[in-house]
Predict the structure.
Amino acid sequence: MSNQKVAVNFRVRRISPQKLESQGWTCTYKGLGPHAVWLHRLGWTLEHCGHPTANYPWLLTDPDGQRILTGAVNGMPMCGRAWPTLAAAAQYVQGFIIAAGAHQADVLSARWREPLGNISTKAGRIERDSPLFFGSGENPTLF
């Protein structure tokens, strides 16, 4: 679990089941009412508390089983409350996945930019053993 900040618009009140499914969520209970549980293909879980008039009914759990509360939007996932809407929690997960992917891309890019070091030993072995170079390998008269 990361403590990175993710922007969430808490004013967005609704999200369609089709939109959720396009983001990788699957509902284990048909409908958005009490006791609904949404599972994300990457292991996230959104579960409704079951109370029909609850102000913060959605519990978000990350793939490691940690509860993620609304404080996560400020980098503090263990602070705050449960999520007020399914839309806000799904938006947080989508932003988290995008940010994590961007971070992973940055790490890989940094690794690719690192110099390879001295390759003359390997280059010498390639020249010596390759049949494409004059006087070596199976074709000593190629050049």
